[in-house]
Design a protein that fits this description.
alpha/beta; seven-stranded mixed β-sheet; 7 strands
Length: 280
């Protein structure tokens, strides 16, 4: 069991203990009210057992705090969110993470994604990927296996040409101007994006700087087969699987998509970004 998961389970147990104490009940008293073994109350309070939604509802009713049910359910959903620390994932370098992504994309039929600051790995050129991976290895102080990681990232892109798949990807226009690599590398990356426009498996949309927005650009995220959402932060990768989270990120994607342009308009925005590069 991951440290992150166990810490969350212990935090939920602390809250359950607080609610019992606020009701003036001993553990044995609560167990009697619930018809449970005293050991179950102890395991839940000490983070030794994961509560079910039904357990939490019964607990709240037994301590005369039914209004706490939404908060307890939210805490439980937090446990269901898988958290992977980048420090642990990159302990042996980037190659293993990239291999996992290859497998993830191969078993997925439909992907909806959004990135605000970077061209996604699915669309990256080797040179662009090489600079990003090297920068991240330095930041995270992880082993340098850049070339192996680049090769694995390029293998992920094979799914773009497989039938039966659909990749609906949105980019904030700022990602076209973020110079995380030399200008000539960025030019090649922008050319790569232009080449993806019109590919049958890919729907590429760009949210322009001047577009009227229904929400702020926010952080990047990826929705896989409407079953799970993957969100990357600086130190952690989250996988969210609750129906509420999937629906929420789906709504965010749809609102951003309403402001996006595609086809020839997207091509012009990419061309404008390329023209701004000093290639002399």
């Amino acid at each position: 069991m991951s440290t992150d998961y166990q810490s969350g389970r212990e935090a939920l147990g602390v809250r359950l203990r607080e609610l019992r104490a606020e009701a003036g009940l001993q553990g044995k008293d609560l167990a009697e009210r619930l018809g449970w073994q005293r050991s179950k109350v102890s395991r839940l309070e000490n983070g030794k057992q994961t509560a079910s939604a039904t357990d939490l509802e019964a607990w709240a009713q037994a301590v005369n705090a039914p209004g706490e049910v939404p908060d307890l359910h939210s805490r439980l959903r937090g446990l269901e969110s898988q958290q992977r620390s980048w420090r642990r994932q990159l302990a042996t370098g980037h190659r293993a993470v990239q291999d996992r992504y290859v497998a993830e994309y191969r078993r997925t039929a439909t992907v909806r994604g959004y990135e605000a600051t970077v061209v996604p790995g699915l669309f990256q050129t080797p040179d662009y990927a090489r600079h990003l991976l090297a920068q991240n290895a330095e930041l995270m102080q992880s082993p340098r296996d850049t070339e192996e990681a680049v090769n694995a990232r390029m293998r992920r892109q094979e799914v773009l040409y497989q039938g039966g798949k659909k990749f609906r990807v949105l980019l904030w226009e700022g990602a076209l101007h973020a110079l995380v690599c030399p200008n000539e590398v960025m030019a090649g990356q922008l050319d790569r994006l232009v080449g993806l426009i019109g590919l049958s498996q890919v729907e590429l949309g760009i949210v322009p700087f001047g577009a009227r927005l229904k929400l702020t650009p926010k952080h990047g995220f990826w929705i896989f087969d409407e079953e799970r959402v993957v969100v990357e932060t600086i130190n952690t990768e989250f996988t969210l699987e609750s129906e509420e989270d999937i629906a929420l990120y789906g709504r965010v994607w749809e609102r951003l998509n309403e402001s996006a342009v595609s086809g020839e308009q997207a091509r012009r925005l990419i061309g404008r970004a390329r023209a701004s590069l000093d290639l002399n």
